[in-house]
Each structure stands twice: as C-alpha cells, then as structure tokens.
Design brief:
It is a single chain. By secondary structure, the protein is α/β, with parallel strands linked by helices. It is built from 9 helices and 5 strands. Helix 1 packs parallel to helix 2, helix 5 packs parallel to helix 6 and helix 8 crosses helix 9. The longest helix is centred in the N-terminal third of the chain and has 13 residues. The two termini are about 25 Å apart.
Length: about 200
C-alpha cells in the first residue's frame, strides 16, 4: 500500500478522490471500474489509507492544493495500512472463485457495519471483483447502501460495471479508469526500473 504519488496515470480519479477529502465530501460508496490489473486496488488502498491517516486534518490544512493531500506514511494508522493490518480497512473475501454470494455480503459487510470503527474515523470496505456479486448479494448490499452509517465507506472494484444493478449504480460515485499512456509507462520503466528503451517499448506493447 502506498499513497497517491506512487500511482502512475489516473490523474482525474486521483484528483476526484483528493478533492473529496479536501472538501469533506467523501461519498459513502464508490465504484472503480476498469480492466483487470489496471490499478483499481492501488487507488482504493491509497484512498483508504488517506481517510484513516491520523494527521489528515493537518495535511488538509497545510495543503496548498488538493493534489498535496497524501497519507503521512508515518503515523500508527498509516503503518497499519501499509502492512495490511488496519482494523478499519476491511477487504471482503469470497470462498467460491467465481461468485460473491449473499452470505459473504451479509457476514462481512451488513453484519459488521453497525459496529463503530475500532481506531480510525471511518470504516472502509473494499470489495474486489465486485462484478462477481450475485443478484441476491447485490440486493443485500443495497439495503446497506440505502442507510449506511456516517462513518462507512464502501469501495467496489469491478472490471464490468454493467454487471451491477442499476439501483446500486445510482447510489455510488462511479469512477471509470482510462488506460495509462504508453509514454508514461515507458518513461517509468526506463527511469525507475533501469530498463533500456527498446525493452521498455516491448513491455509497454
């Protein structure tokens, strides 16, 4: 887990999330939609870590612009987030590889969300592969989305936003990812990974 600065591209989505933090207009539910391995989890984790950062108020106060809003990486909360051990950042899991069932949602979100955050100001649920939710699971989630506690943020990561019920879409902020420009990836590979330009071009392709 790392802050927004570690993410290549996706400037519009990052700006949207940083603005939401700065203006204290964080939604209770987001859908991040994009191809497999496009960085959805990195965005969700950076956002979650920022929201839980103990120095967030100072960071927002001292930020010259929203793009300066980053998790401090030094407080206890940030360190917990970096090691995937934050009690209030919950990753929803599912045993069946191709389906997220109604029981997964009921036990891990609906049955847990009423319990106040353990240490942070918010309780954040990250649902990866949200397109695998069955219709029953989505309907169960809908009940929570209709009346979520003020401290809850639910982030659904999906490769296919069309698999989500319209009633879910209408209650979430939908952020669609665009491909990262090839030149940006090539420069990163050459500068950060010391890969020669001809190899970098092959990797980008």
């Amino acid at each position: 887990m790392a802050g927004f600065k570690a993410i290549l591209g996706h400037e519009q989505i990052i700006e949207h999330l940083q603005n939401a933090v700065t203006m204290d207009k964080v939604s209770h539910a987001y859908i991040i939609n994009g191809p497999d391995k496009s960085g959805k989890m990195m965005l969700a984790e950076a956002f979650a870590q920022t929201l839980e950062c103990e120095k967030l108020e100072d960071v927002v106060e001292n930020a010259a612009q929203p793009s300066d809003v980053e998790p401090c990486m030094e407080c206890h909360s940030c360190k917990q987030a970096l090691s995937d051990n934050h009690p209030d950042i919950i990753r929803v899991t599912h045993e069946k590889p191709n389906s997220i069932g109604v029981d997964d949602i009921r036990t891990q979100i609906n049955g847990d969300i009423a319990i106040k955050p353990y240490s942070g100001p918010r309780k954040i649920y990250i649902v990866n592969e949200a397109e695998k939710m069955t219709v029953q699971a989505q309907n169960a989630l809908l009940k929570t989305l209709e009346e979520p506690p003020a401290y809850a943020v639910i982030i659904l990561l999906t490769t296919n936003v069309n698999a989500m019920l319209q009633t879910i879409l209408s209650r979430c902020v939908v952020l669609n990812m665009k491909p990262v420009p090839g030149e940006l990836i090539k420069n990163y590979l050459m500068k950060e990974m010391q890969i020669p330009d001809y190899k970098a071009e092959v990797c980008v392709a």
